[in-house]
Amino acid sequence: MLKIHNLRAGIEGREILNGINLEIKAGEVHAIMGPNGSGKSTLASVLAGKQNYEITGGTVEFLGKDLLELSPEARAAEGLFLAFQYPIEIPGLSTTNFIKTAVNEVRKYHGKEPLDAVSFLKMMKQKMALMNIDQSLLSRPLNEGFSGGEKKRNEIFQMAMLEPKLAILDETDSGLDIDAIRVVSNGVNKLKNKDNAVLMVTHYQRLLDYIVPDFVHVLYKGRIVKSGTKELALELEERGYDFIKSEVDVEQEA
Amino acid sequence: MNSVEYYKDHFEQLQSSEKADELKAIREKAFNAFSKWGIPTTKHEEWKYTRVSSLFNKPYQFSGSPVFDAKELDSMRLPGYEQANELVFVNGFFSLSLSKIISKNLNVIPLELAASGEYKEIISANLGHSSNYLKDGINALNTAFVNGGVFVHIPKGKVMEHPLYIYNIADAAGDSVFAQPRCLVHVAENAQLQIVETYITMGTAESFTNQVMEIVVAENALLEYYKIQNDVANASQVSTTHIRQIGKSYVHTVVVSLNGGIVRNNLNMVMEAERCESHLYGLYFQKGRSHIDNHTIVDNVKPNCFSNELYKGVLNDEATGVFNGKIFVRQQAQKTNAYQSNKNILLSDNASVNTKPQLEIYADDVKCSHGCTVGQLDEDALFYLRSRGITEKSAYSMLVQAFAADILEHVKPAPIKGYIEQLIAGQLVF
Fold first, then answer.
1. Among candidates A50, A92, A102 on the partner chain, residue whose Cβ is nearest the Cβ of B403
2. Using the beta-carbon criterion (under 8 Å), do A50 and B383 form an inter-chain contact?
3. Are B243 and B279 in contact (CB under 8 A)?
4. For B60, B122, B257, B346, which has the most beta carbons within 10 A of its beta carbon?
């Protein structure tokens, strides 16, 4: 589904991604872990199409298309979803209006008719029940006054409404307590199936107890330096990132 | 062309053609003031960014009550008109035949008649009060030519369930039009009134409206005033709305300025009694080469008053905007609470706005604040919307509407609120 080959990217002249290689197939759950400053969030932002990053090399293929050529809205319509680490508050814009517009614009991209009010409401109610989202959350302006947990749940609710092929979760567990993590993870697990994929970007191993990855990769200094299964995550938890850092730095010196 | 000379002929015609009436003396005094001050140029501080002198110097038609087909009015009516009282001015002259009064307690009387009848005292106490605050030839000119104006009276204790819609129509199908509508509104003790006012120019010639509306709000009365400016590029106006709160009362105003040529609004709120409350809201969304200048004055004459002002602007293309909000707090106006904020978003490189808060505070136990911002749409917010599949254009549109949302919250008549939301969506076709 996703093929990243030797991706290099930076911002303001500084290179952050130094040649990322990664392949994600349908039905898989991947986790990318790494110390602060390794480039985790940059990777998520670059895949989603944030403009202030400059691509300096490499390719990204998503469902057979050149992802880097697509605008952010086209990437979303093609089936890429980014759950933000810090979801934006937009006072004056109702959550419902926002999601309805998003759903219909994606439909339009695929040549489908927009959903009428009744069908949309039905779909919303269904997903609300699935995700355990309260009605009150949706009548408020987008993310305004939401707690950290509420914002993250809102991200997953949007994911449920848009039904993406690849969901990138950018530090979804940051700022959440155990209960909130559990609720958010339940949501993600309910949406997982053999046709879609999940890429979690996370600093802590904790989230991976709830959303179990098939593959774990370690990002350090802009490159994936080690890959493994969920056991790798446990090893990192025990030993910290230092052992990876020293392994890599030794290699580089050699 | 010397504007004073030009107007002098027309003025003399007006004074000589009317039978002796109460307003003659008022006109005379105003014309003298006009002669003294003339039309302000951009050298005047209050008109620094708004060039109107050329608008006054054109060869306009100074016609009397024009002929206007009532059927044309149908396409101009505001939503909810079936349940509204409607006053129609054509080229500045009030037309009783085109108007419609459905509230039995709404008294609408030609100004000349009111000035000599039972409302004589109200008229003499209030007509021209705005000139105390607007010492310029423009305000004086309107008074010098007051003719075909109207007096509106809401008696004590009467609550107007039906709003009052006021249509200012400029018939520029033939020649250019210069209209000077004049209104005096009196909301008596414990009465309530909602006014919705709009401006429509017909035809392709130029129209220029120099309007003065003075409103008196008595004790325990309530006034809601809504202004919708969405006219053609050939239509310019200087519109003065002067509100005196002579008793403890509540007023809120919402001024929505969309399309037009050069538009200047003077909104004055004179709080002459203790514990008055006023809210001034404005939304201007300009594009093309239109120009909007909102000048407001909040005068805290007495203690314990509360005023809150929020004006928001969005400017695109080469549009220009001006905001000047004055707050006066007189020496005896202790415990004044006066807040002011002006926020602007520029959507293009060539749009610009000049914003200036101006506070003159002479009392020492007050809470006053002011703030203004000029910026662009939040890049992160735009990206967030696009990352959900929303196209860039739709994202712009949604963010601008979100920006305007809190101003529109204050438009109480539902059909008018819906109408304004539609107009704004129309401004957003990029």
1. A92
2. yes
3. no
4. B257
User: Is B183 part of a structural domain of the chain?
Assistant: yes
Residues B105, B149: contact at Cβ < 8 Å? no
- In total, how many domains does chain B have? 2
Read off the DSSP letter of residue B159. B
Instruction: Give this complex's ipTM.
Output: 0.94
Is the pLDDT higher at B213 or at A236?
A: B213
| CA closest to A46 among chain B residues | B387
* Cβ contacts of B102 within 8 Å, gap of 6 or more: B83, B84, B85, B162
C-alpha span between A33 and A218 (Å, rounded)? 5
Residue of B nearest to A87 (CA): B384
Q: Do A73 and B392 touch (CB under 8 A)?
A: yes
| Domain spans, chain A | 2-253
Residue B227 falls inside a structural domain: yes
Residue B305 included in any domain: no
pTM: 0.90
Contact check, Cβ <8 Å, B388/A49: no
Q: Final residue of a domain: which of B243, B273, B303?
A: B273
Under CATH, to which class is A2-253 assigned? Answer: alpha beta
* Rounded mean pLDDT for each run of 10 residues along chain B, 430 residues in total: 74 77 87 91 92 84 69 91 95 93 95 89 93 91 92 96 96 88 97 97 92 97 97 94 97 96 97 97 95 97 97 96 97 96 96 96 96 94 96 92 94 96 85
- Looking at B273, B301, B319, the residue that finishes a domain is B273
The answer to whether the CB of A8 falls within 8 A of the CB of A57 is yes
